[in-house]
Every structure is written in C-alpha cells, then in structure tokens.
C-alpha cells in the first residue's frame, strides 16, 4: 500500500488524524503536556480541592486550573472536554460545519454527596439524609437543574452544540477503556462510509471523596501519600495501586481522502482497533490472560500489521499489582521473546490513571511519540519487577517510531487496543 493510498489493505477508507487536544495534570495543551512528559515531570500531588482528613489515599493527578460551581464530575468533565476539543478542532482546520458525529467517553454520573446533602436539607429532612428525603425534594427547581446536570448524556449534548457535530452525539462508558472505545467507534463509522469525520473525546473529572473511598474499598489505590510524585510506579516491584488522575483528550478523525482533498495536515493514522469483552470478574482480569491477548491480536490483525512492525507499546500500566502482571503476560504471549527488547512505557506514572479519559489521552501521547520520535518515560521505575521481562523506558528515549500499540484495559474485562502509524504502510 502506498503512502498516497486512501484505502487500507482490507479495502476500507483509511482513517487519518488531523487534530489533537489534551488537558492533563501536567498542563493544558499538547505542547505543555508533551514537554512535561518527556522531561519526566510528575503531575501527581496532594489533593487541595477538598478536605482529605480520614482518607486512606490523599493524592491525585488533579487539573487545578479550572473552577466550576458546583464542583462536580459532570461539570469538570465537560470543561476539560471543551478545552481539549477546541485545540483539536482548531488544529484540524476543519471549520465550524463539522462533517461528522461526536463520540465521547464520559464517567458514569450520579448525584454526589454535596448535592444529596443540599436536596435533603431542601426537603426538611437534613438530619435523615436518605433516598426518601431526596424524593421529597424531587419537585424543587434545584432538583430540576441538577437532574439536567447529572443525567447521562448531558455533557455530550453540550459539547455537540458547541462544536456543531452532526447527528445524535454518542456517550459511552466502558470503564478504563472508554477513551479508546470512543476512538474505535469513530474509526468504524468512517470506515462504513457513514461520515467523513468524527470528533472523538475521552474526559474525566472524577477526583472527589466518593471516588477515592470507593476505589480504596477495592484496595485499588496507592497509599504512598508521603511522596505523591513517586507513588505511581508501573511495572515496579514495589507498586501498590494506581493514583487517580483527571483530564481529557480529543482527536479529529477524517476519511484520509477527504482530509487530503481539503489540504489538511495529517498527523498520523489509526490503522487498527481490537476489542475483547471478558465477563470473568467485575474488577479482576481473567487469570489466563486470553481476553487481553485476543484484544492485542485483534488490533494487529485489523491494522494488517505483524507484531514485528510495532516499534513501541503505550501501556495501560496502571501500577496495580495485578494489572501490570496481566498486561506483561498478554504482551509476552503476542510478541514472544521480543518483548524483552520492545520499548514499553506508561504515562500514568506521571499523570495518574485518568479512568474514562485514559484511552484517549494515551492515543494523543502515542501520536506525539510518532511525531517527535521520542518515547516518554515510565518514571519511578527504580525497582524493576524481576517477574516482568519488559524493556520499560525509564528515561525518555529517542527512537524511530512508525507504529505504536496503545493498550486500554478496563474493569469488568473491557479491553480495547489501538494501532497508530505515521504512514499507511
């Protein structure tokens, strides 16, 4: 297949990326975030947004540049998404009349405790905060406003209106693979010929006391609060859990033929998408690793790419004992002995685990890796896990990068892998 081809090896429209945008705890915008990532800086810090007394984990990769009132996940997620999408759409030069749909990964939403408290007080039952008291306040004007804020799909509606995307916006939530799933849906829609472009976003502003408590009850979070910047340590022997993060990333995907026809600058291509569901457990991975292995192989097959053609792996790499072990197992099964010399890195060591946004953020990082020929590090990898035979990039590494495999593995066995490239072949 030549670089000028507009169809892939399977005869489908090639999907090009013409715009990128990102918001993270390291900065707003691709330039600032990329510089910080390659310098190995950490955006993880002690939480200052709310009281942390009594919390087992009091650190996170928060984005503190934005204020919303009330401070809640839907509004933060919407704000992050808007900023990331603005950067991506502007870079693409696609104009105000966006020729495609919105696919956006957003966190599951529900009333948070401050809103429940306020509604209970409005009902007159502030000493007995129960769902009964919430129902008593359900007819209030305040409840109507919050119902609109917290209903699933509201963020998508507002972002769609803001950027003029076509058709019904698609909101989705597939746990920690959500951002990658949003990109997959956009790719598939373009391949089917349903649209010439898609705006794909992953966003998450869920760092709040409830989320921290819930993940703590699952023993999923790091409790190394004393030195926040060293708490997230993927693939290290002394890893003890992930660190929550937040942010957003947006990609403008286009039919390559349409992008070239309008003279757009192509930043890279999405060559392959692989997805595999696994009902083994609500949080744990299947112990034989088969769903992870199947997702990676499906992405490579979809991209018509042999394992030998992958130059680096953008790991899911959460820093939890089990996830890192299972990801290493899956990669070893696919890449064989080469895994010991195939560079692998996890940006969660610096920005934390951005949950719903993670797959989209890592897609942007993968494309920037290709563009700059530089693999960001996995910081804090000072005590390698001897059971994981991986070439973990511990300091930024210059390399010729043509193809990147980006892994996203979510709770409940929702696994999505993407293959990005500089050229179609």
TrEMBL record:
Q: In which pathway does it act?
A: Lipid metabolism; fatty acid biosynthesis
Q: Which residues form the Ketosynthase family 3 (KS3) domain?
A: 12-422
The molecular function GO annotations come to: 3-oxoacyl-[acyl-carrier-protein] synthase activity
Give GO cellular component annotations, separated by semicolons.
Answer: cytosol
Cited PANTHER family? 3-OXOACYL-[ACYL-CARRIER-PROTEIN] SYNTHASE, MITOCHONDRIAL, POLYKETIDE SYNTHASE-RELATED
Tell me the protein family, please: Belongs to the thiolase-like superfamily. Beta-ketoacyl-ACP synthases family.
Q: What is this protein called?
A: Beta-ketoacyl-ACP synthase II
| Species whose genome carries this gene | Methylobacterium gnaphalii
